[in-house]
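Minutes, methods subgroup
Present: GH (chair), OT, SY

1. OT presented the first of two proteins processed in the latest run. Sequence and structure tokens recorded below as shown on screen.
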Amino acid sequence: MKKLLNTLYVTTPDAYLSLDGENIVLLQDKSELGRVPLHNLEGIVCFGYRGVSPALMGACAERGIGLCFLTPHGRFLSRISGPVSGNVILRKTQYFQAEDERRSLEIAKSFLLGKIYNGRWCLERLKRDHPMRINQERLDTAIRQMLHSIAELEKAQTREELMGIEGIAAKAYFGEFSQMILRNEESFSFDGRNRRPPLDPVNAMLSFAYTLLGNEIAGALEAVGLDPAVGYLHTIRPGRASLALDMLEELRAPLADRFVVTQINLGIFNEKDFLKKENGAVFMTDDARKRFLSAWQKRKQETIVHPYLKEKIPWGMAAYAQALLLARYLRGDLDAYPPFLWK
């Protein structure tokens, strides 16, 4: 397994990063705010527009350190990385599979199986852990619908059919998502998933978590030699990390969704941690985002038993484990891609 290193989050919007020897130097108005050794890092995420020096970009590329740029509110802008690792045969196989409708459909089914299965178990856990605080009839209806959707996946013959099944399952899951919020329900009301922009605090936190997780998945795919832009479920578009979005589907419920719900239920955030713009968009404040990132890093250190490998790993390595399994499948070492089936 790849050694779990650290990610540097730069949350000062007008900060500029430069290179001094083997150190990253954080500058603001030509004043040094701090420095971090390069050898301690596997990724850098910048919230702002000032950017980094060409020398630092080159050093990160040489060392395989990913550079991700987000707006001050956490919207993804771009990701920079060095040469793709791994061999060209693996990537050729990836591209060939993406062009083959039948093979592509089978991989897409695996991603959606993971998504619906994991979402269903989030609801099952809620039902088990808080039986007196939930509407069990509604929850049971959603769970049955998701089980039906899982059965329908195998019958799907086209990508359009898959997306229809996924849409029904997602509606059932997010229709009961509000029942997971057990504290401060008035400030964290949830009436459904919305984005671009998020219109309430819960969606703001979910979008931010998905952005962070998606960036980590893209880095994991690159690390094993796969192209994050060429996927099987999401269509290929310029600037879109389609394969990273594919893998995000199976990991979002157990990793991102449960993380957000936990932070809300622990009372870590309240209504003062969010700003509402004139267009209705809701974003976290700078202080809230820093606390969110700190908790995110701590959560990544917690261990889980990987459902397929049966080994204990930090949950921050789940994306890398799945990227390795996908690469093994594409190389012919596995008969099928095993999705992350959490329980």
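2. SY then presented the second protein from the same run.
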Amino acid sequence: MARKQLFTQGIRDSLAMAVGILPFALIFGTLAGAAGLDLWQASGMSLLVYAGSAQLIALSLLGTGTSVAVILLTTLIVNLRHVLYSATLQPHVSQLPQRWRILLAFWLTDETFAVAQRFYLTHGDKPQAHWYWLGVASALYACWVGSSIIGVLFAQVVPDMAHWGLEFAMLATFIGIVVPLLRSQPQIAAALTAGAVALLSHAWPYKLGLMAAAFTGIAIGVLLEWLAGREQQP
């Protein structure tokens, strides 16, 4: 497929995730306005940070007068899951020039990973496949930044939008993308284990429960795959 076709397909395939991102970004925008950030500060955070969970956590910590060091450490911990995403996708882009890998790494999010990983699992390493990833990432980036700006503007008219429960749309969309990728028993067990740990550790501070859930799920998945491999050995 040509670059333009792959890029366009990436944009098209990202639309389902954009439906979930839009309300989440609107909520961020309304909360940013309520936290005292002006339009330029809120939009700058979305442009330069581009991490929904980290941005919301930063807002809550800023509101309590938390030090910059604690905010940076907390957001770092929350975003450590991106190391796992990068490790999974790295073999597909290892031959690209550094400028490409830097750009795609900056735009790597939960939603982008879900769509790009599904493409690679389905189609393999097609020539110019990184243009598909670029189409997905650029479309979702534009959706997040644009919706964040709209959220800041709407906060002046609808100040209680953050309490509408709109964030459920993003969760439902992401679940709909991820579940079809669970094709083996180790993958299913890893997902169920991670979900259970996330629920049990929901009250942990600084979102540490997310990391505990991720590492526990990985450990279970790796263990079950290792046991399955041993059983298949003669």
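Chair's summary of item 2: The mean pLDDT is 84.
Next meeting: continue with the remaining queue.
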